[in-house]
Amino acid sequence: MPSRDLDRTIRLHIYNGSRSTRPSPVLINACDSGFTLRAFGIDDELCRPIAQTGYPVVDVKDRLASEHLFPAAFDYTEDVVNWARSQPARFDQAHISLSGSAQAAIWSWRSPHLGCSSALPKTMKSQHSTLLSHSTHPQISQPTTAKKPVAKSKCMTRRILPFFSEFCHPCYRDPREVDTRDPRVSPSYADPARFDKNTLVITTEQDPFTVEGEELVEKVRMEGHNVECHRMQECMHGWNKKSKRGSKGWKAKDEAYGYAAEILKV
Q1: Residue 113 located in a structural domain
Q2: pLDDT of residue 72
Q3: What's the pTM?
Q4: Across all residues in the chain, what is the average pLDDT?
Q5: In this protein, which residues make up the domain named Alpha/beta hydrolase fold-3 (predicted)?
Q6: Residue 190's pLDDT is what?
Q7: Were both Cys, which of 95, 191, 251, 262 would link to 25 (CB 3.0–4.6 Å)?
Q8: C-beta of residue 85 within 8 angstroms of C-beta of residue 54
Q9: Domain range holding 49?
């Protein structure tokens, strides 16, 4: 699809399980790449079952750092939402929803059509929409290495994650120019009243971001919004990307994606 820059396009995977000729709802998913990794397509196991329910999914490739610093990846939000908004004959304008995992979840929490950008018309901010957020990073002002998970894990990946996370954060933003308390990179600092009316948040027991993620959920819930939050037991950050069939992680993934399918019906 076209972007705001004439010499650049945005790569998409479109999953369409509906043959209806009427405008359909759409879920726009941000690829889980930490804004640094070439991982486009990694969310296929989420996109396919959602599309099979008759809810088309647009999987978006991130604009990666460190070649493209903040707000490059976040500008994709506005570009893709504007693209969907420009096609009322194709997409139901009252049902444009967003999803993202890990740092890509920041992409969805910060979405302009959730009211986090004053650059868009008010009519764009008031539409019904749903936010799906898996293992979100609510705020990066505190080092990941200082955050404690609800439950400990001996898994090597869990031990490495805080250090890798700290490596990624300065890769996609210039610390000299972007404050870590900027709500566009740390949704915890945003006005909870401006977030989506329907939200699903999936947290995990062994994730260092779980506590702050659930605290953000409560802030948004206190505003009277419909917020579902489910904590996956014995799971770590990014568990849904590498779970083996038949394992506890696989069952938790099916459960989480089931919650996603249900809230999209709201």
Answers
A1: yes
A2: 78
A3: 0.84
A4: 80
A5: 34-239
A6: 86
A7: 95
A8: no
A9: 12-263
Partners of 195 in the beta sheet?
Answer: none
Give residue 167's pLDDT.
Answer: 72
Q: Would you call 63 exposed, middle or buried from its count of C-beta atoms within 10 A (0-12, 13-18, 19+)?
A: buried
125 CB burial (10 A radius; 0-12, 13-18, 19+): middle
* Strand locations in 125-171 (E): 130-134
Confidence of residue 115 (pLDDT cuts 50, 70, 90): very low
Residue 117: pLDDT above 50?
no
**Residue 2, domain member (yes or no):** no
Peptide bond into 66 cis (omega under 30): yes
Quote the tokens at residue 77. 């939000």
Residues 41-68: tens digit of each pLDDT: 678 888 999 999 889 999 988 777 677 7
Task: Give the side-chain half-sphere CA count within 13 A for 46.
Answer: 33
Structure tokens at 218: 């409560």
CATH, residue 219: 3.40.50.1820
Question: How many domains are there within the chain?
Answer: 1
Tell me the chain's radius of gyration from C-alpha atoms: 17
* Tokens matching residue 45: 């196991």
In the chain the first and final C-alpha atoms are separated, in Å, by 28
What is the C-alpha separation between 161 and 167, in angstroms, rounded?
10
Q: Domain for residue 73, yes or no?
A: yes
Is residue 1 situated within a structural domain?
A: no
Q: Is 12 exposed, middle or buried (0-12, 13-18, 19+ CB in 10 A)?
A: middle
